[in-house]
Design a protein that fits this description.
- The protein is built from 15 helices and 12 strands.
- It is of the alpha/beta class.
- It has 2 domains: 37-250, Type I PLP-dependent aspartate aminotransferase-like (Major domain) (Aspartate Aminotransferase, domain 2); 253-388, Aspartate Aminotransferase, domain 1 (Alpha-Beta Complex).
- The protein has a 7-stranded mixed beta sheet, with helices on both faces. The protein has a 5-stranded mixed beta sheet with strand order 8-9-12-11-10.
- The radius of gyration is 23 Å and the shape is globular.
């Protein structure tokens, strides 16, 4: 074999039996092969396991999928190139023209835009309610066929809590699937409820470093098998190196999440006692309207603290500009503390009545509490609150 050929066919290194890498390798390969045409045909017919093309499956991605399914107490998982990709691919694959989606105003803006703009173009209709409108939910499910109910808990950004048991029971009775964006709560929460499909942004707590995008759709095995073919042709595949980074991040998931929750509670308590703050939205506070429901459903109350500054827009701007440790940028769940204001998270797709329901005001701030020393965070927030009230 001449050298120009050799560089394209390097000698393989296979670990001997009983010898393994403690950190699994990155299968940074688009293509895989079998030993013969016959073996390849067996794979394509589903008669033998393996991998053929990374858009449809990859060993590194598969390891991540299996781990996430176990964390969420479900059978299987599909990973995607982003959290928004997980939502869009799931909703596209689960609906067809003539279907109806029940979803909620208090939630992630891109999900609303997907439902209202993209799916609507293909004949999928929708109803948007408040997550707290129990009577409206029951009315919609009782008066028309609903294909699926999509919801979040806690909601983004003002951390309202869905009654998951009641919502899933009503949807099941109506023959509707439930799709829950569980990103805020994390992989270790809500798995005991009768949710058909969980979606997550892996960009957030799974990675933990804010340096990689990813998404996941987690469900029972039968449903994931039905989704797999559509996900392959939709093409929003997670890169294997990104999957490796997320697997690495998950090693510290529980340590990070719980430490950040503890700091978030302390920051929420500080805000609740400050005269510049009109209201704090944190489900771990007894003053949260749904604290009892959150305490019943959740093991940890999350790392997101939202609140309304009494001084409105001006106070919001002064507060954000005075912070030194909180970066003014989207996302959440990373080691750095982050802040977003209405100027970034404003629900511009909502009309006036819907904006009122959303709970986002001119003075609403969302903090993602990171892993910095709590004393430093308290000092930073206290100084910014003084600036906001000036």
């Amino acid at each position: 074999m001449k050298k120009p050929t050799r560089v394209n066919h390097p000698p393989p290194v296979e670990l001997p039996p009983g010898n393994r890498a403690l950190v699994p390798p990155i299968y940074q390969s688009v293509k895989f092969e079998f030993e013969s045409v016959a073996a390849t045909e067996e794979f394509l017919r589903g008669e033998r396991p393996g991998f053929f093309y990374t858009r449809s499956g990859n060993p590194t991605n598969r390891e991540l999928e299996q781990l996430l399914a176990q964390l969420q107490d479900r059978e299987d998982c599909l990973v995607t190139a982003s959290g928004a990709g997980a939502i869009s691919q799931a909703l596209i694959a689960l609906t067809r023209s003539g279907d109806h989606i029940l979803s909620f105003i208090e939630g992630y803006g891109p999900t609303r835009q997907l439902i209202r703009r993209v799916l609507a173009r293909f004949g999928v209709t929708h109803t948007l309610l408040s997550i707290e409108d129990t009577a409206g939910i029951e009315r919609v499910l009782a008066t028309q066929p609903v294909r699926l109910v999509h919801f979040e808990s806690p909601t983004n950004p003002v951390t309202r809590i869905a009654d998951i048991e009641a919502l899933t029971r009503a949807a099941r009775a109506a023959g509707a699937l439930t799709v829950m964006d569980n990103t805020f709560a994390g992989f270790h929460q809500h798995g005991e409820y009768d949710v058909d499909v969980f979606v997550h942004s892996l960009t957030k707590y799974a990675s933990g470093a804010g340096d990689v995008l990813g998404g996941a759709v987690i469900a029972r095995g039968e449903l994931i098998r039905a989704l797999r073919a559509d996900f392959s042709v939709l093409g929003g595949t997670l890169d294997p190196h990104a999957a490796f980074l997320i697997l690495r991040g998950l090693k510290t998931y529980f340590v990070r999440y719980r430490a950040q929750c503890a700091s978030a509670l302390a920051i929420a308590q500080l805000l609740a006692a400050h005269p510049a703050v009109a209201r704090v939205h944190y489900p771990g506070l007894p003053t949260h309207p749904q604290h009892a429901l959150a305490a019943r459903q959740m093991r940890d109350f999350g790392t997101i603290v939202s609140f309304d500054l009494a001084g409105g827009d001006g106070a919001c701007r002064r507060f954000a500009d005075a912070l030194e440790l909180f970066a003014l940028t989207p996302s959440l769940g990373s080691g750095e503390s982050l802040i977003v204001t209405p100027h970034i998270m404003g629900a511009r797709d909502l009309n006036a009545a819907e904006q009122k329901i959303s709970g986002i005001t001119a003075g609403t701030v969302r903090l993602s509490v990171g892993l910095e020393d709590l004393d430093d965070l308290v000092e930073d927030v206290t100084r910014a609150l003084a600036a906001a009230g000036s």
